[in-house]
Amino acid sequence: MTLTELRYIVAVAREKHFGRAAEKCFVSQPTLSVAIKKLEDELGVPLFERAASEVRVTAVGTRVIEQAQRVLEEASAIKQIAAAGKDELVGPLRFGAIYTVGPYVTPQLIPLLRKRAPKMPLLIQENYTARLGEMLKNGDIDLILLSEPFGEPGIVTQAVYDEPFRAVMPVSHGWAKKSRIATVDLCSENLLLLSSGNCFRDQVLQACAGAQRANGAVNASLQQSLEGSSLETIRQMVASGVGMTVLPSTAAECRTADTKLTATKSFSSPEPVRRITLAWRKSFPRARAVQAVREALLACKLPGVTLLPQAAPVDH
Amino acid sequence: MTLTELRYIVAVAREKHFGRAAEKCFVSQPTLSVAIKKLEDELGVPLFERAASEVRVTAVGTRVIEQAQRVLEEASAIKQIAAAGKDELVGPLRFGAIYTVGPYVTPQLIPLLRKRAPKMPLLIQENYTARLGEMLKNGDIDLILLSEPFGEPGIVTQAVYDEPFRAVMPVSHGWAKKSRIATVDLCSENLLLLSSGNCFRDQVLQACAGAQRANGAVNASLQQSLEGSSLETIRQMVASGVGMTVLPSTAAECRTADTKLTATKSFSSPEPVRRITLAWRKSFPRARAVQAVREALLACKLPGVTLLPQAAPVDH
DNA sequence: TAAAAATACTCCATAGGTATTTTAT
DNA sequence: ATAAAATACCTATGGAGTATTTTTA
Question: CA-to-CA distance for B124 and B102, rounded, in angstroms?
Fold first, then answer.
C-alpha cells in the first residue's frame, strides 16, 4: 500500500471514472488502473464495481476510501508541520547560562532577541557549568552561555566577549582611594567568594595564585575566604562592611549596584579576565538560531566587556 | 513522502540508532539512511541530530514523527477494514422483490439465509419491477427477485423457480366444483386484478389473451377488471364474494389463505406460469452472496412451484 | 581505534508511459 | 460504433543491496 495508491482510489471515488481520475492525478489511465488493481489485490477486496457506463464504489470500498482520505489528511499534516518548522528562528530555543552570567545578561538579551527573532522564545535556565554541559550533551538544552575553559567532543564553542574582574569593597576600606588594584594584593585579603562549584570562585582564586607565582611567592597559601550563595548576596555583604570581593564587571557595574556603600576598582595590568562563550552540540541543526543569539549578545550593553565579534567557532 | 519512509523515521526515533532501526525495518543501514535523508530533503527540515554517539530527534522531528505514527496507524486501519470486508457473506445485502413475490418468499427466506450467512443481514425492499430495475442499475440495491421477462445490459439474471397461476373464487362460485380451470374461460369473468404497473396484472391478462388467441377468438376483448391494491386485499375481496381472481400459487396457497370462504383451482394444461428470477449487476462483486441467496430461495417451501436449480445465469 | 552514519555504485522491482485489446452500451 | 477500462509491453526512476569512506568520540 502506498500513499499514491490511496490518492488514486480517492480520486476514482470522487470522479467515478478512471480516466478523469487519472487526469486529476496527472497520470495515464492505465497507470491508475494498474495501481488500483494492485491495491485491491493486496487488500484482497474489490473497491470498485467497474461497469462500462459507470464506476461504483463497493461497500468495503466506501469504508476503505473514507479511511484513505483520513490517511492522506494526516500525511499532509506532516508537510504542514515541517513547513512550520522550516524557519530556524521559529520555535523555542532552550538556553542556559551559568549563575554568574545569566542574571546580568538575559535581561538585556531577551528584548534584543525578541526584535531579531520574534518567533523564537528563549527557555532560560541557570545552573553550574558542569550541569549545563551535561544537559547540553544530553539534548535537554540547546545552547549555553558560560565561561571558558569549556569544551568536549561533539560540542562547538564560540567566544562572545571577555569580561574583566573588579574588586568591590566597602567605601570604608583602605583601598577605596586607590585607582587600580594589583591582583597579587588580593592574596592578603579575606575575600567573600561563591561556594565551591561555581567556576567564578575558582577563576578568582586562580587569578590570585597566578599573580603570586608571577611575583615569585610560589608557595604562599591563599587567605581563607568567606562564602556567599550568589554574587548579589555577596555584594550585599560587602555593602554591609563584612569584607571585600571580586566580581565580574557586569555584576560589579550593573544598575542594581549600591554605589553609595561600595567602591568598585579595576585591576592593574595584567587585568584578570574571563572569557564568556556560547556552546552547542556540533550536530544541533539550528545554526542560524545560535547566530541570532550570539548577535543579540554582542549587541548587549555590558559594562567593561571586550566584545569578540570575530571569534571563530571552535570544534573540540 | 512514502509510508516506508514514515516507518523508517518512526523506527529511528524508537531506536535512536540508524543501524538498529534498519534491522527492525529489515533493510540495510544505508537504505534507511538514504530514505530518511530523502524525506528530510523533501520536508526541508532535519528530523534527526546525528552524533557519533547518539541520534537525537529534533524539535520538528518530534512532531513529524508523532504525526507519522498517526498516519501509519490510520493506514493499518485500512488493512483491517479490508480484512473485515473480505468475506462476501459478511455485511448487509440490499435485496429487493416485487410486491407479488416479496410477502410470500421473504418470511421463509430470511431464516434460511440466516443459517447460511449469519453475518449477512438482508435489507429488504418491495417495489414494482421497473423501480427495482432502476435502483439496481443505480447501485441503490444489490439483488432483486422478480418475474421474467427482465433483462438489461449490464444485468445478469438467473431463474429460480416457475410459479403456476391459480384461480381463486368464492366457494359459492359455480366453478368451485370443477377440478381444473381452462385459462380461456377466464375471459368471460370479471377478474379482480392489481392496479396497472404490477407485472402480475399484465401477466394474467396476457395469459387470457394468449388462451383466446389459441382458441381462435383473436379479436375478442377481455372483460373489464376490478382493481385491488394488493394480492391480500384482492383475496379478502374474493372471500367476501365480490368476484374471482387469479393469484400466483405462493399467494393462493400460503397459510394466511382463508380456506373456508374461497376455493383455489389449478389451471388445465397449458398451465399459465410465471418465472421468478434473481437479477444483479454484472459488475456486482459478491457473487457468493448472490448464490447464497439463491440457494436459500431454492430451499424455501413454496407451494406449487417448480424449482430450477440448474438454471444458468444469463448475461443480457 | 572503533563505531556509526554517509557515500558510491550496482541492480532490479516497479511506477509510469504508449499502444492495443477487450468489454459493454 | 463508441467509450471506458483492462492488458501488453517498454522505459526509467528510485528503492534496496554491498562495499567503502568519512566522521567522531
Answer: 9
